[in-house]
Design brief:
This protein is mainly alpha-helical and 256 residues long. The chain has one domain (19-252). It is 77% helix and 0% strand. The chain contains twelve helices and no strands. The chain has helices at 2-43, 53-58, 60-63, 67-72, 78-83, 86-89, 92-105, 110-144, 151-188, 203-215, 221-228, 230-249. Helix 1 packs across helix 11, helix 10 runs antiparallel to helix 11 and helix 10 (203-215) packs across helix 12. The protein is elongated, with a radius of gyration of 22 Å. Mean pLDDT is 92; it is low at 1-12.
Length: 256
């Protein structure tokens, strides 16, 4: 009877652990959906530099590497750019929760802790980097319709906003990518609850496939929308696959 009670307790504990892990992965799914929609609204446009010669030619030397960005932002209305930010910033907490889910997928140890830390750090930075597209894009819109005497202060403001966006976006994406790289390595080493084949669902290879595929159709609005949401689409694929693996393997899950 005592053995049966102990087995029942272990079974209940395992079911609870699986349920909690599934919930965290579903938080990742929800976040990835919100951020994918936001990315498509915010940057999912086909480049049309010929329509904006002021930005692509006249002011290009002053804009520098940000000239293409300034042109890209003209394709979206202020309302569209705003809604390209809100779903992402208000769902960022779901990505933070999902980072705990990724941690629980990995075998306990130093690598799991580091992977969790860099993912959490990257997700924590991401709202500011994402919102920066809106503020910088709105300055670019004002610049397009400004009189020449207003160009110098607007260009200065644009460059400052773009620098802030660039620093936070690169730090966020770089940190998140590092976290996924650690998970990819651990998956291949069979040190996660996922099968080794799940390495193909990791956001790094999935994102590479999406980015390369979309680059083949530079004038396609669909490719532009999907390409603009590459990283979050890739994370959506991963979280869906991970949640399916957890559900299928359930209480009997073992690393790799």
């Amino acid at each position: 009877m005592q053995n049966q009670n102990e087995a029942s307790v272990r079974c209940g504990s395992s079911e609870t652990a699986v349920s909690r892990l599934s919930l965290l992965l579903w938080a990742g799914i929800a976040a990835a959906v919100c951020w994918t929609v936001a990315d498509m609204l915010l940057v999912g446009f086909v480049q049309t530099p010929e329509r904006y010669p002021l930005l692509s030619q006249t002011l290009a030397p002053q804009l520098g590497e940000a000239a293409d960005f300034a042109v890209l932002m003209q394709a979206g209305s202020p309302e569209r750019l705003l809604w390209g930010v809100l779903p992402a910033t208000f769902s960022a907490a779901l990505y933070l929760a999902a980072a705990f889910g990724v941690y629980r997928l990995m075998r306990p140890g130093r690598t799991a802790k580091v992977g969790f830390a860099v993912l959490f750090f990257g997700y924590a930075l991401s709202p500011l980097g994402h919102a920066g597209f809106y503020f910088t894009g709105m300055v670019a819109k004002v610049l397009l319709n400004a009189v020449p005497d207003d160009y110098p202060p607007l260009l200065t403001l644009f460059r400052h906003f773009y620098r802030m966006l660039e620093v936070h976006w690169m730090a966020s994406v770089g940190s998140i990518a590092a976290g996924w790289l650690l998970l990819l390595v651990q998956t291949l080493r069979r040190r996660t609850l996922l099968p080794r084949a799940a390495a193909w669902c990791n956001p790094l290879p999935v994102g590479t496939v999406i980015a390369v595929s979309c680059s083949l159709f530079p004038q396609s609005p669909v490719a532009a929308a999907l390409g603009g949401a590459t990283f979050n689409l890739a994370q959506l694929v991963f979280f869906v696959c991970a949640a399916a693996c957890v559900r299928r393997r359930g209480m009997g899950m073992q690393p790799g």
